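User: Hi! I'm working on a homework problem where we have to compare a predicted structure to a textbook description. Could you give me the structure for the chain below?
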Amino acid sequence: MPLATTLPDVIAAPLNRLAIRYAESPLPRFFQWWGGELRALLPARWRETLSVEAAQVLLEIDGEALRVATRSGSDESEIERVPLADRDELGRLLATALGERRSGLRRVLLLSPAQVLRRTLQLPGAALENLRAVVGFELDRQTPFKPDQVYFDCRVVRRAAAGRPADVELALVPRTTLDRQLEVLGPLSVGLDGVDTRGADGAPLGMNFLPPERRQRRARSRLWFNLALAAAALLLLWLAAWQSLENRRAAVLELEAVVDERRAEARQVNQLRGALTDAAAGANFLAVQREQQPMMLVLLAELTSLLPDDTYLERFSFDKGQVNLTGQSSQAAQLISALQQSGTLNNPALAGSIQPDARTGKDRFTITAGYGATEDAE
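Assistant: Happy to help. Predicted structure tokens:
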């Protein structure tokens, strides 16, 4: 089988399944509501333009006249009734009635409901993927006509849950009836987009009995324009997302630079704090050491006042809070009691024994004492 004949069938099956899933989802109702809300925000002139573009021209043969009306949504208004006497003038008369603004609208011929046979079929859900072909096979069994005797169309009325049959409405018109109507229109039949009929509420059913090869072929400029707008919207959305990411990346880099700067400042502060702590500890140590060191002149003056006049020192030293006195005195045994009167020396005691010096006639002594005020003195 040639590729040209199989490729459309291969593409049509997935598209039909996708269309069925889309129709069964809540997306159509959402987009319909959303579109209405967006249209309500537009200026009145724009809403009027969009309503005109979405409208369609309805043509109905009523006796010897052609009724011309426009329908947009649920609103329908008759424009004019054009006589059918001169078929060659129908095109000019219809163009005059429609005007330039509505000349490009879709044109649909409406048949009388009495000319159309309608039936409701119950088909399994799997048949919806290739609905028209399935209904075509059912024509012999469901109607008194054969497929080559009628023009037909169908639509899904109610979609049932999985595993249950769906309600499908079948509408058909004999070929002779439709061909006769198209012959009455003459040249106007070439520019038709569809053939439909009215339902019980007077609104078109949404069927199209006109064979695809006889429908008006319109330029796809609006489709390409919408596709271009969608592509531009996607591109702008991608650019916005990319710019947002770049802004976030730049903000992160800037924040990291600020954090690094603050971290360096904190490191310097810690270093300065450590240096200050060390300096303070050193200064405190020196102050403590200075407080613990005696003032030698004061200590010597006190020793001079406490020691007898016949006593002299040969050696005086201070080391680690202890005073060492070495000298000679004729009253060495009484020196301890004299030093106990000191307010800065505590616990004076002889270090070793007292030894007489034959050359001077005095006793040699060595006395140790602690430096610092005693509790009694405090």
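For your comparison, note the following. The longest helix spans residues 221-292. Residues 1-7, 374-378 have pLDDT under 50 and may be disordered. Good luck with the assignment!
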